[in-house]
Specification:
alpha/beta; hydrolase; globular; single chain; Rossmann fold; 369 residues
Length: 369
């Protein structure tokens, strides 16, 4: 009798797990279908309003002058033996000084850190990377090439190539996600972790499933699972959706901070209009659901989390919840009136808060090998 009950209990547990997994993927694909219908309606409406320009867009042939501004640093390249990928980065500051490594988000590239490259090069060797699939770095074709483990390994390889065994790691948006994961898996390589407008990955997954309002704000995660169609929607009307992300009243830069100049915007259009660029950037999203939940969660480095109060994509309640996973000093600063694009929107405030955090326990440096 005991054996029968044991087998029955085991069967019920397995059944419950299967139902939970089925519900999880049903939610994802169901919401993906809804987002597709909405996108199709937007496309159809755009065709009605602008029948001659909807399917017109231009690949930018030449970079704007701001991308060659020597005050930002030197353009460098490295080919990693293990992955075979070539990475582009911009570096400034003296070699041998502590390393501060910057990881950008979507749909950005190294240029999003221009204000920080100028600010911190006096005391650090500052390096802003084009992550795989972005900018002048290589674009692997396979979606599997953008799994979390590959993205984290890229950062380890780059730090070691630069001649360091640890760094002060700074990440925004998707770069923040990779920064969290790197600090989790390689705590000995992160002296301090600075994250801008990106919750701990476990906080995000738990919170989004419990709060429909965040699920709605994260609808792009589901839409981006589709092949090719998201790339089309970003491209139509000469990248209108991309321009809107950075400039619209609801999501853009400069509502209470610095405005994105026409040349700055052209830099993003130059980077994202290149063949394969949109697919590389979107492939980050196409692996996210199979990579969660995390098997490891705890961060053992000191953490500074900066959060724009008016982030259009992420709810502020997630910021404080990150404290649950940090086993060291945690500082959270909410910046009033700031958007999702925090380091570009409010660079002076961001830089001041980073300096304050870095000076706490100045004895801990980012040493070379």
């Amino acid at each position: 009798m005991a054996r029968v009950l044991h087998n029955l209990l085991f069967f019920l547990i397995r059944l419950a797990l299967k139902i939970r997994v089925l519900g999880y993927w049903s939610l994802i694909y169901g919401y993906c279908a809804v987002c597709t219908v909405v996108a199709l309606l937007k496309l159809w409406w755009n065709i009605i309003l602008r029948p001659t320009t909807t399917f017109q867009w231009a690949i930018r042939e030449s970079p704007p002058a701001c991308l060659n501004d020597t005050s930002l640093g030197t353009h460098c390249y490295v080919r990693i033996k293990e992955s075979g990928l070539r990475f582009h980065y911009v570096a400034a500051g003296e070699r041998g000084k502590p390393l501060m490594l910057f990881l950008h988000g979507f749909p950005e590239f190294w240029f999003s850190w221009r204000y920080q490259l100028r600010e911190f090069k006096s005391e650090f060797r500052v390096v802003a990377v084009d992550m795989r699939g972005y900018g002048e770095s290589d674009f692997p074709l396979s979606t599997e090439s953008y799994r979390f483990e590959h993205l984290v390994t890229d950062i380890k390889d780059i730090v070691e190539y630069l001649g360091y065994n640890r760094c002060c790691l700074v990440g925004h948006d998707w770069g923040g996600t990779i920064a969290w994961l790197f600090a989790i898996h390689y705590p000995e390589m992160v002296t301090k972790l600075i994250v801008l407008n990106c919750p701990h990955p476990s906080v995000f997954s738990d919170y989004a499933l419990r709060h429909p309002s965040q699920l709605l704000k994260s609808s792009h995660f589901f839409f981006f699972q589709l092949p090719r169609f998201p790339e089309l929607m970003f491209s139509i009307s000469d990248f209108k959706a991309l321009k809107s992300l950075f400039t619209s009243r609801s999501t853009g830069i400069g509502r209470k901070g610095r405005w994105l100049t026409a040349e700055d915007l052209e830099a993003y259009l130059y980077a994202m209009s290149q063949p394969g660029a949109l697919t590389g950037a979107l492939n980050y999203y196409r692996n996210v659901f199979s990579s969660l939940p995390l098997s490891q969660n705890h961060v053992r480095s000191p953490v500074l989390l900066l959060w724009g109060e008016r982030d259009a994509f992420l709810e502020q309640e997630m910021a404080e919840a990150c404290r649950l996973y940090i086993r060291n000093h945690f500082r959270l600063n909410i910046i009033s009136g700031a958007s999702h694009w925090l380091q570009q929107d409010q660079p002076d405030i961001v830089n001041t808060l980073i300096w304050t955090f870095l000076k706490e326990g100045e004895g801990r440096k980012c040493y070379r090998n």
